[in-house]
Amino acid sequence: MELQDFSKIQSRRRFFRHCAGGIGTVALAHLLETEGRAAAPSPSTDPLVPRAPHFAPKAKSVIYLFMSGAPSQMDLIHPKTAARELHGKPVPESMLEGLDDILIRSTARIFASPRTFTRHGESGMWFSDLLPYTAKRADDICMIHSMHTDVSNHHPGQLLMNCGQPRFGLPSMGAWVTYGLGSESRNLPGFVVMTSNSGHGIDGGSSNWTNGFLPSNYRGVTFRSSDNPVLHLSNPPGISRESQRARLDALRQLNEARLATTGDREIAARIHSYEMAFRMQSAAPELVDFTGESPSTLASYGIGDETTRPFGTNCLMARRMIERGVRFVQLYHSTWDDHTDLNKNLATNCSMTDRPTAALLKDLKERGLLDETLVIWGGEFGRTPMAEVRRGQTPGREGRDHHPFAFSMWMAGGGVRGGHEVGKTDELGYHIVEDPIHVHDLQATILHLLGIDHTRLTYRHRGRDFRLTDVGGRIIEKAL
Amino acid sequence: LTVTAAPDLKGDPPRRAGDDWWSLQPLASVDPPKNAGSSDWANNPIDQFIQHRLESNGLAHSPRADARTLVRRLYIDLIGLPPSPETVESFENDSSPRAWNQLVEDLLASQHYGERWARHWLDVARFGESDGFEYNAPRKGLWQYRDWVIRSLNNDLPYDQFARMQISGDALKPDSLEGNAAVGFLVAGKRNPVIGAEPLMGQLNQQDALEELTGAISQTFLGLTTNCARCHDHKFDPITAEEYYQFVAGLAGVTHGEKEVLDDHGTVVPVYTVVSGDPGTMHVYERGDVASPGKEVHPGGLRAVRDLQPSFGLDASAPDGQRRAKLAEWITDSRNAIFLRVIVNRVWHYHFGAGIVDTPSDLGFNGGRPSHPELLDWLAIWLRDNGYSLKGLHKLIVTSAAYQQSSISNLAAAKIDASNRLLWRQNARRVEAEVLRDSVLEIAGELNRKRHGPGYHDVKMVSVPPANYYIPIDPIGEEFNRRTIYRWNVRGQRSALLDTFDCPDPSATAPRRTITTTPSQALSQWNHPFMLRMSEKLAQRVQSEIVQEIARQTEPVGSTTDDISTRLIDRAWQLVLGRNPEADERATSKKLMDDHGLELVCRVLFNSNEFVLID
Asked: In this structure, are strands A437-438 and A432-434 parallel, antiparallel, or unpaired?
């Protein structure tokens, strides 16, 4: 079409009529037709349609228990008996050599864990008395003691763990995974985030589940563990589902005409978001309806108990979402940032999370879902072997500071080796002495278990190909 | 297509920027190119630059958008509110360049212009009315800064003065409300009052605060991430750690505080502002470690900014105000090319949805490369030579033919330049959260136009000493129906409507907003009580207008209900979308109204793409 003709017909109404006949937007009209509710979803209309991985996956979905604020590994899962002898003494000079982190105070004194540790399972894995339930799942767990990260502040640390770089604007792991694999669920988002806390929010907030530069559809959608799991999910009183449908149909007609006129992808995304919202209106209440769950299941997650209910509900929701095809579920529990009152606060957080965590692993296993579901547990970094005494507080109220050089996380199911430990640290747990595993290595491994080659899951943005693992990432073979 | 980067990129791409980095070069005075093609398209030199790049890439510009689209685009761009149906109609009747110019003049003179563009500036200024961090204490009187920005933009305060005032207003106009409000910029960011017991922790906390401040000033006015040179020389841009501490030395006396000053009416008012402290002696801290002070440094700028003397000639005894006044002079020096490039690019970004450099606060190595480097420099020179007038710059941009292009896509052009970096069309943009809310209020006839003063509260503060939490509420009443810029902008949670439409949390600067489309957004737009209330108000407004219209009518009223239905529906469409429905749209609306009432037609219209997209 010549430019002059184009200007003649560009008044939007006339344009629409002309376009219906022939030029470029025909393609878009076609897209809309195939997007009909009865039609099979295709990648061009539904950004979350399932896609084939690079190779056969071990895991189909992920439940990531993100312990925001950084739990203290040496009081929970990484005992250091040598610390007892050095308790109250300065850190040996040798450990401080060449350190380049302004947050580590060299004056701090070693602090032996006030907790007691025992061995569990056939593997004899160590757990402290704060995690009696998780300890029972020892033989499902692959414990990694040699994690290290680049940053020692919460927000950058959380961003690095989730998005591969300690700065804003990059997609999170859940976004990358749903971008790469789509989602099996047509009625729920592919990437769902839920939060619980012991009185403090998550430092990084929604930047932890952002889509970054990936299309909006891959952003983590936050659910709440209440009767109204998504904000503004319910129709106003007195409006039936049918009349809601009628209204959405009217809106859809309007918007589709608009899409045909302008051919803008944002409009297609918006149409999709309303359709998903509508389907969520029926799927989400069903999701949070636990009446079909047996009393023993509910009890195991601690749903009836005030303390365990928030995280327990989220864990049970996570299992139910995985069953319904959600690809990536992330549960945040905050905060483990115990600069003071470590002993007391750890007991609080563990009492909220230990039982539900173990119940989730057991429940998944009993349903045959653990093999195809990768469960991850951990924070953004670890905590120091030394005590931290803030603002002159009394002994007994010690905490621990941030520690990026060595910390522990665990994975279970989804193709990882249960009852196995990876990595070793020095006698205090200050430095790694065997098998250092960087955050990018963990990310590469998670993608690997999902059948994705982390070097090939890329997105071109601002002139270069980005990936979750930046320029790093080695598969943790010893965990597989 | 590769949109060429810095003009001198040859051979292996560099791994970092040197002193020869494009954005640090003096402004290049380039004559607007003469183009071979349809030369009558160009309204002003902007178009000549645009057309040149289009032609050399085998692309053509798009035709002018239709009158309705244009008038809506201009209203939302310049004042953040939609035009009335009557304004649309009148422009449809005369959309000549003269009528367009008049519309531009009128909108730039409107009080709403300052309210609209102040919101953009406050995004960059990470303006938050609470401390953030664990305690998140509210700040009394920081809204004075928001009002100063609105007033300054409305008064078209020259941009170099606008910048100087925000860095050193309290020193330039001591004891004045104006001067103290303006430096609200310096104390608008997050602040951590939790200081460790050890003296080193106190120092560390101060250095953290100075890094935040340095980042804010440097990224806002210079498009450089100077803050990245705290622990080592900048890894990508030519900024040394020594220069970082020199820059920091200029700001070391800034502390947060409240003052009481007299306003224009002689009333004592509180203002959250800078209280000058002792800047002390600044050192280069090795690896950023406050326990390892190295060489002593004095206030100064960056060597990378050519043609300017990096040293301010001040020694360790120079007081805070003098240091900042010098820093402000250095930044706003008319020879400082990057200072000018950054602001013209920022303004361009908001008019086109993408900057000539698509990272408005980073013109360094990690930022984007300019799509039109010559145009960027031409605009920078234009601003400098035209009294730093931002209103003048807006006018220049929106009267260009490039700005007035249709945003309709075309597959052939999209194949060559899918991201539209060369501007073969205008970008179709989604409105921001604030524009959405303000427009809904305006269309429903509920907008409270009250200007300035303390903000309305749509969060409830819960204090659990020493911490404070803010819980979103949905308050009802006229005082809450003010423009969203007058919202009490504390850090933390926001209403789901603002949140799902990507209103940024002021914890960090937002030079470019994220734009997401999610089911949660659809749900809050569809079901949020505010949206339901406003749909109801709009239905009432439409009904009462049609009733009055019928009452005024002298000829007999069409007795059929159809006639009245049509009038109601058409009026709702006119108010929300600025046009009449087409026959099929009218039929759909009518069915909806018959089954569920006019209120639902209004709600559907408020949820339509046409309403939330600028074009």
From this structure: unpaired
Is residue A373 within 8 A of residue A322, CB to CB? The reply is yes
Which value does ipTM take for this structure?
0.75
Tokens of A174: 């859940």
Residues present in chain B in total: 615
Of A225, A147, A149, A217, the closest CA to residue A188 belongs to A217
Q: How many CB atoms lie within 10 A of CB A90?
A: 13
Set of chain B residues whose Cβ sits within 8 Å of the Cβ of A23:
411
Q: Which residues contact A49 (CB under 8 A, 6 or more apart)?
A: A41, A42, A43, A182
Cβ contacts (< 8 Å) between A397 and chain B: which residues? none
Search chain A and give the residue with CA nearest B200.
A105
Q: Do B522 and A277 touch (CB under 8 A)?
A: yes
- Kindly give, in sequence order, each residue whose CB lies less than 8 Å from that of residue A177, ignoring residues fewer than 6 positions away: A62, A191, A327, A328, A447, A450, A452
A-B contacts (CB, under 8 Å)? 171
What 3-state DSSP class applies to B283? strand
Given pLDDT bands bounded at 50, 70 and 90, which one contains residue A106? low
Residue A325: how many CB atoms within 10 A of its CB? 18
CA distance A309 to A302: 6
Q: Which of A100, A154, A221, A247 to mutate to test the interface with B (most CBs of B within 10 A)?
A: A247
Residue ranges of alpha helices (H) inside B319-432 are 320-331, 337-352, 373-385, 390-398, 411-416
Interchain contact, B197 vs A391, CB within 8 Å: yes
Q: Is A295 exposed, middle or buried (0-12, 13-18, 19+ CB in 10 A)?
A: exposed
- At residue A463, does pLDDT exceed 70? no
3-class DSSP state of A122: coil
CA–CA distance from A47 to each of A41, A44, A208, A270, B540 (Å)? 9, 7, 21, 12, 40
In this structure, are residues B428 and B82 in contact, taking their beta carbons and an 8 Å threshold?
Answer: no
Q: Quick one: pLDDT at residue A177?
A: 97
Q: Do B612 and A270 touch (CB under 8 A)?
A: yes
Residue A15 has pLDDT above 50, yes or no: no
Q: Kindly give, in sequence order, each residue whose CB lies less than 8 Å from that of residue B555, ignoring residues fewer than 6 positions away.
A: none
Look at strands A424-425 and A402-403 and give their pairing. unpaired
A277 and B519: CB-CB below 8 Å? Answer: yes
C-alpha to C-alpha distance for A290 and B333, rounded to whole angstroms: 66
Q: Where are the alpha helices (DSSP H) in B9-156?
A: 45-56, 67-79, 85-93, 97-109, 111-124, 143-154
For residue A141, give the 3-state DSSP assignment.
Answer: strand
Q: For A70-172, where are the alpha helices, taking DSSP H only?
A: 82-86, 93-96, 132-135, 154-163
Question: What chain A residue is nearest to B512 in terms of C-alpha separation?
Answer: A169
Stretch (H or E) spanning A448: helix A439-449
Residue in chain B closest to A246 (alpha carbons) equals B592
- Neighbouring C-beta atoms of residue B558, cutoff 10 Å: 13
Residues of chain A positioned with their CB less than 8 A from the CB of B63: 3, 6-7, 10
Q: Would you give the end-to-end CA distance of chain A in angstroms?
A: 59
Distance CA A129, CA A120 (A): 11
Rg (CA), chain B: 26
A263-277 confidence digits (pLDDT tens)? 556 666 777 788 888
Q: Are B378 and B45 in contact (CB under 8 A)?
A: yes
pLDDT surpasses 80 at B188: yes
- Inter-residue contact B181 to B273 (CB < 8 Å): yes
User: What would the two tokens of residue B456 be?
Assistant: 């309305």
* Per-residue tokens: A302: 């601690």
Tokens matching residue B525: 């737009």
Query: Which pairing describes strands A141-148 and A420-422: parallel, antiparallel, or unpaired?
Result: parallel
Yes or no, beta carbons of B66 and A107 under 8 Å apart: no
Which of B428, B517, B591 is opposite residue A273, by nearest beta carbon? Answer: B517
Using the beta-carbon criterion (under 8 Å), do B613 and A267 form an inter-chain contact?
yes
